[in-house]
């Protein structure tokens, strides 16, 4: 187990180098003058272009630019945003907000998605089952921003039940509505996935054996059905955590959440490539770690899985 | 992005505009909202993320500009009602020849850290911005000062590997201190609009604290204006508290202004409707449909002209467009501005009749003559007089709302009137379009726009159409125009305005840039606010606004 983790951690290094290089070259391959958007209808002052070119080593070939970038990053220097802050400082403000939002969204996925999925499977074909299948179909069909705007308008502006946008510091209560909107699509999938695997497991041999042995129904469900059915669901939620931590630009925009997604979008639009690459690197790192965590969880859920 | 209106992808540049209420909203209705006016009130205002450190010499867009314009005061300030420059830090700004200006400062003014606002605080700030190696974005504004070239030596081989030599001096030879409260400015050529120009953000004074630690200053500037930045950052917004040491007459009637950073104007609009935000300077396009915002804001809105004009540039370096005034006239006559502004913009734009915004002194309606009025028959007539028959395309940046619709509507109008091919040609974003424009790679029509830096007619002409001027994207060149501008810059009062108008008339003869429309701004606010005025910089006037609890 320990050796497995160490091996996985070491493997992250080449993955990280590969992805950052890809992102770095793609960011700089974007068409357009990297400075034009900073100066509007007026060409940037010669002195400004010169200073920036020098700072970012734009005169050097791409691999050398990338070398400088990695060298700085290895020393903990992630570069500067255009308004003079260090990227790390800005990211350390945005990241906790995204993490909070992700936690709320994942909580909805787990509690509502798995909970309702189990309930629906156990009452297969009943009214409840039909109702939730319909609701999940609606959630899958509508893009998040439509659900976002509709809920924001009716629950926020009209009824005043929830705060319309997220305030400074992103307090938890402000994140309930955005978290739900963000989770809505995955919630529907988790619900359907849970229901389907559960139905499958209910028909499995070991469950029939357990029931035949005369074990109480509750114990059969807890120990033999639900636990075994959760592996695909955990895989799905794990992947989702990674995606959500990478920022949810649309939902963040609708509810004005100052998270990683918005930060990346802003940086991209003004061609602040150093920020784009640094922040994406952080996101890649987080996704790799979450993936590792999910893999380790498998072993807890299914005793047949062992890591050597 | 942070999309704040039309000009740029991410931000609008330079200052805003004023006057001429197109159709007034319910503003200054005293006591509106029920409660009594509270001098300790705190209000929240929409803003986007500033792109640059909060340093006057580096701030060229509205998001940072609005913070600085409330924490600093320059030599002059613009009257929120008529955009006229009024003395602020300066006691007087005088000149005999419009070349050498003597600036006298008011006594006893200080910065928020207690240090005096004196001649040095202006001279040092201006030298810093103009000095090439500091790479300040606003260095452009000092290019008319004596000694600017010495601070910005040319690169010997342009983009080549050799670097520009380091300037031999760090100060503008045109700036001379006379005493603590007096200094002189020598310009390279006559500029009668100098007193108007120095109200712009780039000309604010700086305290010694800036030179000691520019980086810290850029995060929390120390100004000399009615408000001071007490906390915040670009991502969530800045909190400005009233500074009790401010001696100007325009003392605020509120205690605190919180500039909240938004990433979407729709979210901000919802916040205003729910009472979570007090002022939004531009409602989202969706709220303009059938003028919804007027009803939804319960009458708390204003719709007024600002100093922004949209145009079509015909690149003079491209085949077919070069020295072809008949083509320009034909294309201009073929654009049905009335219908487009009504259908595409819900009348939030006004058809342009010239190249100068109606909000500045010296604006003359109809400078464009008959050529800015839709007339298909006459368009065809001019079109037949010349040889270039197309095909035509209209390039635009697709990252701002309305640009696509504009390009398609303009092209359709031309197509229908002239029977030629015309395609709207999208660029991914502003940066990409600008790269081709600045690189002179356009081979057909492209979108252009201008937001004034300071409210003066000169700002709509010289930077855009003078031979070789920085923002002369289409490389228009006319010795007659250049001579008139030079003459106007040296003249004063009405005489100067007449000369500027004559210069504008030259543009109509050549038609290398086609005026489309003037922009207006539609702002909404919460019921807490009264006495709402929008400044020439398009922002809420914080010195006159009042609020209830």
Automatic annotation (TrEMBL), chain B:
Domain of life from the UniProt record: Bacteria
Protein's name in the database: ABC transporter substrate-binding protein
Q: Please spell out the taxonomic lineage of the organism that makes this protein.
A: Bacteria, Bacillati, Actinomycetota, Actinomycetes, Kineosporiales
Q: Which UniProt keywords apply?
A: Signal
Region Disordered: start-end pairs: 152-172
Which species is this record about? Kineosporia babensis
Q: Which GO terms describe its biological process?
A: peptide transport
According to the entry, every stretch annotated as the Solute-binding protein family domain falls at 86-470
Start-end of Basic and acidic residues biased regions = 159-169
Q: Which molecular-function annotations from GO does this UniProt entry contain?
A: peptide transmembrane transporter activity
């Amino acid at each position: 187990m320990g050796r497995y983790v160490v091996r996985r951690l070491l493997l992250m290094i080449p993955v990280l180098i590969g992805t950052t290089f890809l992102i770095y070259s793609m960011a700089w391959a974007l068409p357009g003058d990297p400075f034009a958007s900073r100066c509007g209808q007026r060409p940037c002052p010669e002195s400004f272009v010169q200073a920036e070119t020098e700072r970012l080593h734009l005169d050097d070939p791409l691999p050398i630019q990338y070398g400088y970038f990695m060298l700085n990053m290895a020393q903990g220097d992630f570069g500067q945003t255009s308004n003079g802050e260090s990227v790390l400082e800005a990211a350390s403000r945005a990241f906790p907000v995204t993490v909070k939002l992700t936690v709320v969204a994942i909580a909805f996925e787990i509690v509502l998605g798995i909970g309702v999925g189990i309930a629906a499977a156990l009452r297969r074909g009943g009214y409840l089952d039909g109702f939730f299948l319909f609701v999940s179909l609606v959630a899958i069909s509508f893009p998040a921003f439509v659900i976002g705007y509709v809920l924001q308008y009716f629950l926020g502006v009209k009824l005043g039940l929830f705060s319309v946008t997220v305030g400074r510091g992103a307090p938890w209560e402000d994140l309930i509505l955005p978290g739900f909107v963000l989770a809505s699509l995955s919630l529907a999938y988790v619900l359907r996935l849970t229901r389907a695997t559960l139905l499958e497991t209910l028909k499995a041999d070991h469950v029939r054996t357990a029931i035949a042995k005369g074990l109480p129904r509750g114990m059969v469900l807890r120990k033999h059905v639900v636990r075994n059915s959760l592996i695909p669901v955990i895989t799905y939620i794990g992947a989702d955590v990674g995606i959500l931590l990478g920022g949810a630009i649309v939902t963040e925009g609708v509810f004005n959440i100052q998270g990683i997604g918005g930060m990346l979008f802003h940086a991209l639009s003004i061609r602040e490539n150093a920020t784009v690459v640094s922040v994406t690197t952080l996101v890649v790192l987080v996704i790799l770690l979450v993936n590792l965590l999910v893999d380790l969880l498998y072993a807890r859920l299914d005793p047949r899985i062992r890591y050597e | 992005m942070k999309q704040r209106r039309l000009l740029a992808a991410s931000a609008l540049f330079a200052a805003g505009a004023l006057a001429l209420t197109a159709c007034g909203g319910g503003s200054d209705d005293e006591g509106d909202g029920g409660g009594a006016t509270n001098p300790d009130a705190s209000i929240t205002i929409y803003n986007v993320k500033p792109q640059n450190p909060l340093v006057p010499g580096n701030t060229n867009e509205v998001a940072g500009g609005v913070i600085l314009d409330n924490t600093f005061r320059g030599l002059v300030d613009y009257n929120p009602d008529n955009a006229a420059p009024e003395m602020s830090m300066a006691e007087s700004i005088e000149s005999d020849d419009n070349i050498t200006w003597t600036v006298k400062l008011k006594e006893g003014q200080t910065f928020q850290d207690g240090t005096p606002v004196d001649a040095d605080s202006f001279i040092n700030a201006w030298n810093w911005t103009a000095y090439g190696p500091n790479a300040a974005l606003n260095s452009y504004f000092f290019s008319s000062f004596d000694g600017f070239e010495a601070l910005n030596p040319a690169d010997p081989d342009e983009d080549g590997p050799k670097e520009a030599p380091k300037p031999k001096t760090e100060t503008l030879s045109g700036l001379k201190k006379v005493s603590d409260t007096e200094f002189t400015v020598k310009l390279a050529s006559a500029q009668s609009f100098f007193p108007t120009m120095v109200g712009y953000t780039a000309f604010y004074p700086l305290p010694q604290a800036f030179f000691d630690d520019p980086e810290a200053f850029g995060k929390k500037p120390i100004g000399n204006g009615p408000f001071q930045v007490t906390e915040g950052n670009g991502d969530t917004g800045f909190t400005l508290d009233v500074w009790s040491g401010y001696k100007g007459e325009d003392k605020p009637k509120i205690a605190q202004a919180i500039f909240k950073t938004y990433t979407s104007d729709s979210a901000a609009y919802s916040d205003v409707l729910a009472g979570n935000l007090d002022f939004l300077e531009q409602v989202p396009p969706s709220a303009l449909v059938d003028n919804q915002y007027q009803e939804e804001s319960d009458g708390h809105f204003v719709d007024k002209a600002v100093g922004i004009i949209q145009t079509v540039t015909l690149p003079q370096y491209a085949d077919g467009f070069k020295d072809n005034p008949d083509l320009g006239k034909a294309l201009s006559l073929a654009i049905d501005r009335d219908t487009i502004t009504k259908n595409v913009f819900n009348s939030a734009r006004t058809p342009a009749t010239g190249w100068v915004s109606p909000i500045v002194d010296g604006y003359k309606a109809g400078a464009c003559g008959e050529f800015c009025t839709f007339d298909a028959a006459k368009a065809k007539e001019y079109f037949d007089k010349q040889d270039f028959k197309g095909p035509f395309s209209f390039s635009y940046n697709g990252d701002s709302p309305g640009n696509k619709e504009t390009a398609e509507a303009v092209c359709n109008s031309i197509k229908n009137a002239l029977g030629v091919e015309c395609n709207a040609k999208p660029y991914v974003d502003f940066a990409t379009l600008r790269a081709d424009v600045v690189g002179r790679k356009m081979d057909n029509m492209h979108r252009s726009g201008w937001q004034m830096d300071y409210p003066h007619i000169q700002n709509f002409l010289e930077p855009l159409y003078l031979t070789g001027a920085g923002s002369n994207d289409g490389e228009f060149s006319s010795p007659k125009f250049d001579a008139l501008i030079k003459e106007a810059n040296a003249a004063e009062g009405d005489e100067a305005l007449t000369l500027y108008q004559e210069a504008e008339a030259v543009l109509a003869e050549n038609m290398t840039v086609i005026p489309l429309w003037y922009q207006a701004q539609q702002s909404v606010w919460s019921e807490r606010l009264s006495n709402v005025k929008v400044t020439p910089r398009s922002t809420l006037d914080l010195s006159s606004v009042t609020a209830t609890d």
